[in-house]
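The passage that follows is intended for readers who have already worked through the single-chain material. We present the inputs for a multi-component assembly, then the predicted structure in tokenized form, and finally a short commentary. You are encouraged to pause after the input and sketch how you expect the pieces to fit together before reading on.
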Amino acid sequence: MAAPIAELCNVTVRYQQLVALEDVTLTVMPGEFLALIGPNGSGKTTLVKAMLGLVEPASGTVRLFGRPPQDLGREWARVGYVPQVVHIDPRFPIRVFDVVLMGRYAQIGLVRRPGARDREAARVALERVGLSELAGRQIGRLSGGQRQRVLVARALATEPELLILDEPTTGVDVGTTEGLFELLEAFHEQGMTVVVVSHDVGVVAQHVNRVACMNRRLVAHGRPAEVMRPEVLECMYGREAALVAHGDLPHIVVRREGSAEE
Amino acid sequence: MLEILGYGFMQRALLASVLIGTVTAIIGVYVVLRGLAFIGAGIAHASFGGVALGFLLGVNPVLSAVGFCLATAWGISWTSQHAEIREDTAIGIFFAATMALGVLFIGLMGQYNVDLFGYLFGSVLSVTADDLWLTAALAVVVVAIIGLFFKELLFITFDPEMAQVSGLPARGMYTLLLSVMALTVVLSIKVVGIILVSAMIVIPAASAYQLTEDFRVMMALAVAIGNVAAIGGLLLSYRLDTASGATMVLTATVIFFASALLSPRRRRARR
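Having made your guess, compare it with the prediction:
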């Protein structure tokens, strides 16, 4: 059996007194397309950050490509990451191609300039997300979905084996979400390992081949059809959660006083 | 008009203007895009303490200001990181404290020093050959650092969090940027003065920002505008017998409003 891409073993993460992630054990194998789902505050983002070594676990161990993530050094290039919140000024005078090329800066090394090889990688990354024609466009002159794809292309510029996306579909419409997941499915079919954080249970179930349900702890994980059962969803979203089947697609409706979350 | 170029003081003034018009504009691009105008003003005011210290100790005020401004830049960066306060609060503290130190140093000298005025408001016509050498050396250091770390500085200006995550030394690069800004302030004070130097940093870059959507073009335009403002301001001030630093800043301001009017950005935003 191939070596795991990422391993978390009994990982607990605390922010001051708040326990964000409790005793989570999870392995990501090469070629998997894994979704982390759960309500807000369930520790999905924290799990991803722990996996990348961006937060220090209070206990437990994390391995990325068999090593503590802090020790990856130049092998960072094997990971592509699209963070949840990106503080980018849409008026910044920079073009799409130059943003994608930034994905390679760390790999190029301090002081050295991007070469032909780097430019080619950025060009291919843009092509993979279907935005080749917009290479010369200023970053603010894109739709929300296009901008998200540019950030995916930036993550792809290092030609990573593992692509991690944290809530990539926040604030974009249904069609755009569907398009992005189709893109991720294509990367997965090309052999890339993909981990995506999402609360869009319906879309996730259609595309991924494994789901991990979070509520600070890992509530359940497995194939979408096995995992998305009413008792699991109740454990994640609370008693009021109901599973409504639309054909093959499971769909969650959560109802609380005065508010409906999906 | 051309005969004034025959004078040594005018040649030195022109050279000094070209140097600072270029360097302030380059730094200004990062200042404008990253929102560092206040820290620029803070460091500029800190140089007052540095200049006063130089007079007190009898050393070259530009050299003492280099140390003083670098210490202030690092102090602001360190304090905002370790004291759990926002950076603009840290700047507010250092801004006032370094000015207060300057006033204290002047008091200790026991006599009113007229020379200090030249540093507050600039006196480009009194630039000496030594001043020019020092300015040129600092300018070379600033331009070399920006050239070497061009892509890293671009990344931390555009998306500092991702720069950090991707493995670039983002914190170190930010400190480097502040240090280069401190050097720029110091090399400019003799020409435009402590009070006006932050304007020469911000205005050319802000004007260029109105005119382009490409980072490199913005830098080239900022340098061109900075030079037009510095040289044009110098010649105008000679002609009109006005203060050179103030004339340069006002020339730059006129260019800014002209570029804002012509701005393709603004026209697009309105559409």
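Commentary: The radius of gyration of chain A is 19 Å. Chain A touches chain B through 27 residues (CB under 8 Å). How closely did your sketch match?
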